[in-house]
Each structure stands twice: as structure tokens, then as C-alpha cells.
Design brief:
The complex is a heterodimer. Chain A is an alpha/beta fold. Chain A has 2 domains: 62-253, Rossmann fold (3-Layer(aba) Sandwich), CATH 3.40.50; 261-392, abc- transporter (atp binding component) like domain (Coagulation Factor XIII, Chain A, domain 1, Distorted Sandwich). Helices cover 23% and strands 32% of the residues of chain A. Chain A contains 8 helices and 18 strands. In chain A, strand 6 (183-187), helix 6 and strand 7 (214-218) form a beta-alpha-beta unit. In chain A, helix 4 crosses helix 5. By secondary structure, chain B is mostly helical. Helix content of chain B is 62%, strand content 1%. In chain B, helix 5 crosses helix 12. The longest helix of chain B is centred in the middle third of the chain and has 28 residues, at 118-145. Classes of the chains: A alpha/beta, B mainly alpha.
Chain lengths: 429, 312
């Protein structure tokens, strides 16, 4: 492997927090403190404050990012993501440690940085491009592409202050999308703009990634991270909690732990309403044991136990299956002909659905349990995180993976029937 | 094996890696980039720095286009959506000149102490003074006004106060036309002394950069300077020979007086425009102080600029 594009060693950033004024006890103290306040204020402003008025936004962060890698950075607000990006973009200096960057960096911490409301779209393209580090000739040569990408040709000579916020964002992203650099640092740009714009951004970032450039991508949008990145870094309270395969990183971030069964004690705390309440959910393997992980080839049984307290309603239990990034893989509901359109009498029931082996791909799966009535549509209860388990696999040759040893992409990995006919010119058709 | 282990529903298939050995023509640019990338890349080391640093001239030079664009933005924006537009660059100094002539020249009796008509006497000093006053106030506030840039993108921070000089320079160029008209009106001929004007202009720019960067850097940490600057500019004007002739200062105090860089420089402008005798010793002192301020301002700025993004 060649030299890393970004090498981060023991990086740390300490910030000062505001001086918390000590409580004034007596008039004499108050007078003394008022007199001393300008001095204290000066000490604080000039950075001579004591260490206990500081906190580490980032500490002991080490990582290496190879050229061409697309790495997601995820973490809660205040975990240090933006601080890390700001250090790598040279906006702020680290307090300790160092980072080596091999190649030119374009960083996009905001869309449309430096846009001036009074200037026209055309003028702002030049201004913003220049601020982002483009040369004038470069902007001139890409000008038409930028305008086309932004989709606001008609308003290019209108002052930006008359633009809708969506148009401003599109113009800003269009400029940034045409930056040329080996390394691209992107912070949460997808948080703005509508769905169509987000899709366009993602597509562009993908193009950049496929073009062999190194991308650091911060987002709260897990589906985007998992789609763009193979690897992700989870930051927590300023340090790296996990760094590795994106699915695991997202699971770590979302705080997923395996839960094979849950039960609620009788009473109004059980999820549901006066008609029906959930009692328990369980995940069992073929031998009726409660499990928290399952081999990719084995069947798994999801069981919903519930109490019907009012007769006369047609109840349909259903299961919502989510993958690690929170997107829904599929929904399945009870179509057992024995109960179809038939109201359940009062009592405790157990509905079980089998998810076959060789169907789900490896990774984290969360199943939500719900009980609904469809005519009229009522959701009596919905427990989105009923059980969480891991579909595991050995990586050895198997039914659906065949002889391929790498990671098989996709939400599902069904075992489908393939047929190959020899094509030596004697085929019937 | 699968081409790419990225799962996706939204992005068109063209985004996927083309199979090896089947590179479409449209990917020539990509191939070119790959070749270019095999050339050695610049390596940047990011680490904490301490103490005094020198100004990175090479980096400033590399960003000269940005300096131009930032100044261009200020010039463009300055008179947008105004009825009179660039005429304001003339109205301001002319009105000031009229007011000064009436109150200081006539009522205050200063017009008896000048060798030429008081309006042209004052206007010759207002040209450099207004440039100095506006650029010092604007560059002093520039970092606070540009806080959004400082916290979102990297470029040499010195460009921000530097760029604020652009618009006042243009204003000065426009208001110089009035000076020409005044000289014709009052029959003051342009002499060879005018050749010295670029020196004084350069000296003023040097002084402005020094004071402006110093105030800008201080204002980031100490917002007190927001109140200091207008006050400072006002006092500075009365301490400079704008309303009264330089010669009013007693001979033995003149060199001390020239420690105010604008004292020597304004007297220089006036001598150059009105064809009077130069006070070279005083001008020399003022230029020296301007250069000293320039170094103090920029070096202090560069020392503290690493904290700007954290505190602005």
C-alpha cells in the first residue's frame, strides 16, 4: 500500500470554556470582583486561563486514510467530527499531535461559503470558487458546467438575495462540485436542500469517489454514509470509538446491542391500547432456542406474543425488518388463511413468522413488531426495536455466496436458481 | 467478483467502476488524472505552532487572485442599490471640504494661515486622510465581519484586512478628479513635485496595512476595539495636518510630530499637489514609522491568527 493520503497521529484540540463567575458572597467580595473582573476577562481573552476552564474537543485521535478511500465520520453532536475536519482543513490548529496530508485538499464545510447576497449568481460563482481555492482561469473554463449543474441558468444574473434558499444551496454545491483536488473533505452538506438535491449531491460525491480521490465524509444521514463509504470512523467524546467496516461502524454508533427477546410485565406499560397489547417478542432458531445471532443459511423465527382484550376486531400482526443504517428492508404481515378477516376472541396469542435461511445478507438486523387493523386502518401498537440480531457467516464457500470469498453487497442474499446452457451453436432456439 | 461492494439504489449505474480493460473514452480525463497523480504530491504537515512566525510570502502570492476577488467584491457591493452610486465617492469629501471651509476656514480663521485657498488646501489633505480613515476602520473590523469565512475555509488570513483597501483606493481615485477640477478653478499649476505622489501613496498604504492588521487582530480577541477605532480615527485626524498647515507646528517639535506617520505623509501630499516645499526630514520619520507599524501589525497578526477561528 502506498503512503496514506491522510495520516493523523495523536491529534488533540483543547478549547477554553467560558469563565464561570464565582458566587459573590458579600458586598466587599462583589466590589473586589468587579474591580478584578477586567483583569480576569483579559486573562481569559488572551488565553492565559487556567487548565480547568478548558475541555478537549478531540484527544488522541490516530488514523490513516489511504489514497482513494472514502471514509465516513459519524458521531453525535459534539463528538468532535467538525473539530477534526477543521483541523484537517487548516481552519484551526491542533493543540497536540500532528496530521500529514499528502495531496491538495478541498474542504467543503458549508455550501456557498462567502456568498454575498448583493452579488449576482455569476459574480458569486467567481467569488466562491476563488474562496474555495480555484484559480480564475479554472473557474472560467468550468463556468458553463457549474451553471448547468446548478440548474439556475435563468437567474444567473440576478442577485443571490432574490434566490430561494434551495437555489442558493444548489449554486453553492455546483461550485464546490467542480473543485479539483486529491482529497475532498465534506461536512454535512446533505443536511440542506430537498430530496432531489441530496440525491444529486450523493451522486456527485460518488463520482468523486469513483474517480479515485480520497473523500472524508461527515454526515448524520446513515443511509448516505453506508452507501458512499466502505469504512467509517465513529467519534465519541473526542476520541475514536470504532474504525472499520461501515456497517459495524453504524451499528456501533447507533448503539445496537443484540436483543433476542423482550417481555413486558402485565399492565398499561405494555405497548398497545385497549384492544390489544404486546406481551413479548422472541427470536428463536430452528431448535426453539432464543438466539441473538443466526447463520446466514439458517432459518429464524420471530414470535410476537400479545393479549387481545376487546373482541370483534380483525388483528394483523406484522414485522418490520430494518438493516443497520435504519432503512427498511421489508415488511411482512400475517396472511394465515385460518385467521384472515376473522376477529380474534379475547385471549393471549402467539404469532410466528419464519424468515428463511439464505435470504438476509450478513449484518445487523432489527425487527419491529406491530399489530394493526386494516379496515379501518389502525395501528394498535408498534415497537420499532423489538429485537436486534446479527446475521453472521463464516466466509467459507456456501450455498448463496458460491466460491466468492469477499463481502457480498446488498441487503438480501437470496439463494436463487441459476441455469447455464452451453452455447456451442446447437441450442434449440 | 462483484465490481464494487457499494450498495445503492439512487445513483445511476454509470457511477459504478467500469470493468478493468474496458475504459470508455469519457474516462480519459480520469486516466489523465491518474497519471498526474503519480507525480509527487505536496505533503502538508499540520501540527501545533508556537511563538512568532514570519509571514509566508509564497502562500500570499499563491492566493493573489483571492485578494483581487475579495477587493472586487467590496468595490462591487459598495454602491449597489444606491441612487447616486459612485457619486458618493465625490459627495463625501466635497461636503466635508465645504463644512471644514465654512467652520474652520472662515469662522475659525484658519484660512488666513494657508498659502492657497482654504478649500483646495483642505481637499489636498482629505484625499489621503479619507483613504486612511476608511481603510483603517474597515480593515480593523474586517475579521469580525468575515467571521463566517474564517470559521469555514482556510486561506491566508492576512488577505482579509488587505482586501479592504481596495474599495477606499478606488474611492480615492474617483475623488482625485475633484482635486484636478479644484486646481484648475483656483489656478494652481501641477508641478514636478507631483512626481513624488506615488511615494506618499505607498507610504500611506504601508501605514494603513500596519494599523489595520494590528487593529483587526486585536479586535478578534478584544471586542473593545470596535469602540476604540472610530474614536481613534477622530483623534488621529486632529493630530494630523488636515485642517491646519504642517508649518503651524513649531520647528523644534516637527520631527516628534512626524512620529504620527500621517503628519509627514499628509504634508507630503500637500506639497506635491500644491507645489510647495517638502519637509523631507519629517517625511522620512513618518515613512520610517509607517514601515515599523507595517512590521508590527503583520507580525502580530500572524502570531495570533492561529487562534482566530476558535475565538471569532
Amino acid at each position: 500500500m502506498s503512503e496514506p493520503a491522510i495520516l493523523v497521529e495523536n491529534l488533540g484540540k483543547r478549547y477554553q470554556i467560558g469563565l464561570r463567575g464565582a458566587r459573590r458572597q458579600t458586598l466587599r467580595d462583589a466590589i473586589m470582583q468587579t474591580a478584578a473582573a477586567p483583569l480576569q476577562q483579559f486573562q481569559r481573552l488572551s488565553g492565559m486561563a487556567r487548565a480547568n476552564e478548558t475541555f478537549w474537543a478531540l484527544r488522541d485521535v490516530c488514523c490513516a486514510i489511504q489514497p482513494g478511500e472514502v471514509v465516513g465520520i459519524i458521531g453525535r453532536n459534539g463528538a468532535g467530527k467538525s473539530t477534526l475536519l477543521k483541523i484537517l482543513s487548516r481552519i484551526t490548529e491542533p493543540t497536540e499531535g500532528r496530521a500529514l496530508i499528502h495531496g491538495r485538499v478541498a474542504s467543503l464545510l458549508e455550501v456557498g461559503t462567502g456568498f454575498h447576497a448583493e452579488l449576482t449568481g455569476r459574480e458569486n460563482i467567481y467569488l466562491n470558487g476563488s474562496i474555495l481555492g480555484m484559480k480564475r482561469r479554472e473557474i472560467e473554463s468550468k463556468f458553463d458546467d457549474i451553471v448547468e449543474f446548478s440548474g439556475i441558468e435563468k437567474f444567473i444574473d440576478t442577485p443571490v438575495k432574490r434566490y430561494s434558499s434551495g437555489m442558493t444551496v444548489r449554486l453553492g454545491f455546483a461550485v464546490a462540485a467542480h473543485l479539483e483536488s486529491e482529497i475532498l473533505i465534506v461536512d454535512e452538506v446533505l443536511a440542506v436542500g430537498d430530496a432531489e438535491f441530496q440525491k444529486k449531491c450523493l451522486g456527485k460525491i460518488r463520482d468523486v469517489a469513483v474517480g479515485g480521490r480520497t473523500v472524508l465524509f461527515v454526515s448524520h444521514h446513515m443511509a448516505a454514509v453506508s452507501r458512499l463509504c466502505k469504512r467509517a470512523i465513529v467519534l465519541e467524546s473526542g476520541s475514536i470509538r470504532y474504525s472499520g467496516e461501515v456497517g459495524n461502524a453504524i451499528s456501533t454508533y447507533l448503539g445496537q446491542t443484540r436483543v433476542g427477546s423482550r417481555a413486558w410485565p402485565p399492565g398499561p406499560k405494555r405497548p398497545g391500547n385497549d384492544v390489544v397489547r404486546l406481551c413479548a417478542v422472541r427470536l428463536r432458531d430452528g431448535r426453539d432456542e432464543i438466539v441473538e445471532s443466526v447463520d446466514v443459511g439458517a432459518s429464524i423465527f420471530f414470535e410476537i406474543e400479545y393479549e387481545v382484550m376487546q373482541p370483534g376486531q380483525v388483528l394483523v400482526p406484522n414485522a418490520h425488518v430494518f438493516i443497520a443504517d435504519g432503512s427498511c428492508a421489508f415488511v411482512t404481515h400475517d396472511v394465515d388463511p385460518a385467521w384472515r378477516g376473522r376477529a380474534r376472541p379475547v385471549g393471549i396469542y402467539r404469532s410466528i413468522v419464519e424468515i428463511p435461511g439464505n435470504f438476509l445478507n450478513e449484518g445487523w438486523i432489527t425487527i419491529g413488531a406491530a399489530i394493526s387493523t386494516y379496515h379501518p386502518f389502525i395501528v394498535h401498537c408498534f415497537e420499532p426495536d423489538a429485537v436486534t440480531f446479527e446475521v453472521t457467516e463464516s466466509g467459507r464457500p456456501g450455498p448463496a455466496r458460491g466460491d466468492f470469498a469477499g463481502r457480498v453487497p446488498g441487503v438480501l442474499r437470496p439463494l436463487l436458481t441459476w441455469r447455464t446452457d452451453p452455447s456451442n451453436g446447437v441450442l434449440a432456439h | 467478483m462483484p465490481a464494487t461492494p457499494i450498495t445503492d439504489c439512487d445513483v445511476p449505474a454509470s457511477a459504478a467502476l467500469p470493468p478493468a480493460g474496458d475504459l470508455p473514452d469519457t474516462d480519459l480525463a480520469l486516466a489523465a488524472e491518474t497519471i498526474r497523480r503519480s507525480a509527487p504530491l505536496p505533503t502538508l504537515v499540520i501540527r501545533p505552532t508556537r511563538g512568532w512566525r514570519s509571514v509566508d510570502l509564497r502562500e500570499l502570492w499563491a492566493h493573489r487572485e483571492l485578494l483581487y476577488f475579495l477587493a472586487w467584491r467590496d468595490i462591487k457591493v459598495r454602491y449597489k442599490q444606491t441612487v447616486l452610486g459612485a457619486a458618493w465617492a465625490i459627495i463625501q469629501p466635497v461636503t466635508t471640504m465645504l463644512v471644514f471651509t465654512l467652520f474652520f476656514g472662515k469662522l475659525g480663521g484658519l484660512q488666513k494661515q494657508t498659502s492657497v485657498a482654504y478649500p483646495i488646501f483642505v481637499y489636498a489633505a482629505l484625499l489621503p486622510w479619507q483613504f486612511f480613515a476608511t481603510s483603517v476602520s474597515q480593515s480593523g473590523q474586517s475579521l469580525i465581519a468575515g467571521a463566517h469565512l474564517i470559521s469555514k475555509v482556510y486561506f491566508p488570513r492576512l488577505l482579509i484586512p488587505f482586501a479592504t483597501l481596495g474599495a477606499p483606493l478606488v474611492d480615492m481615485a474617483i475623488s482625485s478628479c475633484v482635486m484636478a477640477l479644484l486646481m484648475i478653478w483656483y489656478g494652481v499649476p501641477l508641478t514636478l513635485s507631483a512626481l513624488a505622489l506615488p511615494l506618499f501613496l505607498l507610504g500611506t498604504i504601508v501605514a494603513v496595512v500596519g494599523v489595520g492588521t494590528l487593529l483587526a487582530a486585536l479586535a478578534v480577541a478584544y471586542r473593545d476595539f470596535r469602540h476604540v477605532v472610530p474614536f481613534l480615527v477622530q483623534i488621529w485626524m486632529f493630530s494630523s495636518p488636515v485642517l491646519y498647515p504642517f508649518e503651524r507646528v513649531p520647528e523644534r517639535w516637527r520631527l516628534a510630530y512626524a512620529l504620527n506617520p500621517m503628519a509627514g505623509l499628509i504634508s507630503g501630499y500637500r506639497s506635491a499637489l500644491l507645489g510647495e516645499e517638502f519637509h523631507w526630514a519629517a517625511i522620512g520619520v513618518s515613512l520610517g514609522v509607517a514601515v515599523a507599524l507595517f512590521f508590527v501589525g503583520t507580525v502580530y497578526f500572524v502570531r495570533v491568527e492561529r487562534r482566530f477561528a476558535d475565538i471569532v
